[in-house]
Amino acid sequence: GQSLEQPSEVTAVEGAIVQINCTYQTSGFYGLSWYQQHDGGAPTFLSYNALDGLEETGRFSSFLSRSDSYGYLLLQELQMKDSASYFCAVLGPGAGSYQLTFGKGTKLSVIP
Amino acid sequence: SQTIHQWPATLVQPVGSPLSLECTVEGTSNPNLYWYRQAAGRGLQLLFYSVGIGQISSEVPQNLSASRPQDRQFILSSKKLLLSDSGFYLCAWKGDSNQPQHFGDGTRLSIL
């Protein structure tokens, strides 16, 4: 099976940088995804890392180290609208072909 | 472009009543389809997935069922709702290989 660990809550100041870590234990691994979910909304896809290294998309970057079973989401130039829950999810075998297993989420609060 | 529609957005049902939630995908063919449930403040739990018409797999035994009568239609049902069925239900789709999953807007179900 799969298990993922990420902090439950993080608070950061507007304009700052925040890093949300995710460690995982898996019985099969294709890659690590990150999703953002605002209160009352559906998760929206942010990034996917299949290979080691850093992927950058605007203010958001995601990093993966397969040997360490570790990844992180980096948010730069934080804005108030970044306040949301962030989920890491492991893509692995299952569910017919590919299965996503989600962490419990990290609630990010951006303060002025 | 692909879109996913899920309805209703909110639903209040009495204990013991039936349930039918519908999800449709546009702009793609033969998608993998998923139903998740998210309890308040928690991660996403995979309930059902489908790789094709009439093909349903259940991840968690419970009083819910799913059906896929058409290629781009996925239905979540129950004959008799329990209080524990309350939650946020999300439909998701993905295409081939390791493409990300994309979620519908979700249905917030409250059981009274």
Task: Give a verbal description of the structure.
Chain A is built from no helices and 11 strands. Chain A is mostly beta strands. Chain B is mainly beta and 112 residues long. Chain B contains no helices and 11 strands. In chain B, strands 2, 4, 5, 6, 9, 10 and 11 form a 7-stranded mixed beta sheet that branches. In chain B, strands 1-3-8-7 form a 4-stranded antiparallel beta sheet, with no helix packed on it. The model of chain B has no long low-confidence stretch (mean pLDDT 91).
Number of helices of chain B: 0
**Percentage of residues in DSSP E strands of chain A:** over 45%
Structural category of chain B: mainly beta
**Bulk shape of chain B:** globular
What's the tally of helices of chain A?
0
Give a short account of the largest sheet of chain B: 7 strands, mixed
Round the mean pLDDT of chain B to the nearest integer and report it. Answer: 91
First-to-last CA distance of chain A: 40 Å
Structure classification of chain A: mainly beta
Mean pLDDT of chain A, rounded to whole units?
Answer: 93
